[in-house]
Design goal:
Blueprint (H helix, E strand, L loop, with lengths): L8 H10 L1 H22 L1 H17 L14 H9 L8 E4 L5 H8 L4 E5 L2 H11 L7 E4 L12 E7 L10 H10 L1 E12 L15 H12 L3 E11 L8 E10 L2 H8 L2
Helix pairs in contact: 2-3, 3-6
Length: 263
């Protein structure tokens, strides 16, 4: 969920000189603080509210988010070319949106399942993928619901879903990701930071260090983080990408997971 309007350097300079930037930033900080309190007190309600917002967005044919590009993430290309995502193993695309990543993976010859909690997004994915050779499968799934049951896969990717989930529900999200990853399977998480001034209206982790610590806290019981690389979430042509970190994780054994969870 990224804002689609950007400030140019000249606009930012003008707003700074006139004092409008500080006023607007102060307002957004207050708004984000209120949102944070609401998420803490009513996490499930906020989760449902976010879902309804996404349903409206994906139902709008004019919706053009900043990150809606057919260019795959550099890390995903590396995962395929290096064999870290084996071509003979099924891939699950978490928060598939309109299915750009899923269709790219299918084009590389992999079996792909795209998951999203927006029914409108799933409808779009199926429509856009109809008739393609080796078309991906798409299913509605809310990964913030407890005790999710899906057939596990060896390879999973999340490009930009985790960082917009209500914070209190992220442990449930991590548990479900673990459930649908086979033992020693691979999970590539690309999560954004919100340090860029373009993303001030959105609450979220503002520094790379905080994001790395947070991901370790949320996923550490279930996954070993093998690498954490500074990156960007690619944007549409003419726009800068969103600062992010790519986490390369390996699913721990069931015994290790149980032992850590009971501590």
């Amino acid at each position: 969920m990224l804002i689609t309007h950007e400030r140019t350097a000249d606009q930012r300079l003008f707003l700074t000189k006139t004092g409008q930037t500080s006023n607007r930033d102060t307002t957004w900080k207050l708004v984000n603080r209120i949102k944070g309190w609401t998420e803490q007190i009513f996490p499930k309600w906020m989760h449902r509210r976010h879902r309804h917002i996404w349903e409206r967005k994906w139902a709008n044919p004019e919706f053009r988010p900043l990150w809606k590009t057919d260019q795959p993430p550099r890390e995903l290309v590396d995962a395929i070319e290096s064999g870290w995502f084996p071509k003979d193993q099924r891939v699950i695309d978490i928060g598939c949106g309109n299915g750009e990543v899923s269709r790219w993976l299918a084009g590389q010859g992999l079996a792909v399942l795209g998951l999203d909690y927006s029914t409108e997004a799933i409808k779009n994915c199926r429509r856009l993928s109809a008739g393609r050779p080796n078309a991906p499968a798409f299913e509605f799934s809310d990964l913030c619901q407890k005790d999710l049951r899906l057939e596990p896969a060896f390879s999973l990717i999340d490009r930009g879903c985790f960082h917009r989930i209500v914070r209190k529900l992220r442990p449930i999200f991590a548990q479900n990701i673990a459930r649908i990853t086979v033992e020693n399977g691979h999970f590539l998480l690309i999560a954004g930071t919100f340090q860029d001034p373009r993303f001030l209206p959105y609450g979220g982790i503002r520094s790379e260090r905080q994001l790395r610590e947070h991901v370790e806290e949320i996923f550490g019981n279930y996954f070993t983080i093998k690498r954490a690389d500074t990156t960007v979430i690619k944007a549409v042509p003419g726009q800068e990408g969103k600062p992010a970190v790519a986490f390369w994780m390996v699913r721990k054994s069931a015994w290790s997971n149980l032992a850590n969870a009971e501590r």
